Amino acid sequence: MREWLKSLRIEKGYTLKEMGEKLRISESYYAMIESGERQKKMDLTLASGLSVILGISVAEIIALEQGRG
Q: Which of 19, 32, 40, 69 is the most exposed place for a label (fewest CB within 10 A)?
């Protein structure tokens, strides 16, 4: 589970559906990313999109993915 991702999404006031729309993926696929079922190793395209939407750097995302956030 990517608790950091869920927390940031909620902090920014976005729903799962809104995140999916912003990333141009389905709500269910985004939910699987957040739960850790998909994108177990997050690719740069996704990290870059999340960076813009959530207002954090790609470096911060990498650190959070590695448990250093």
A: 40
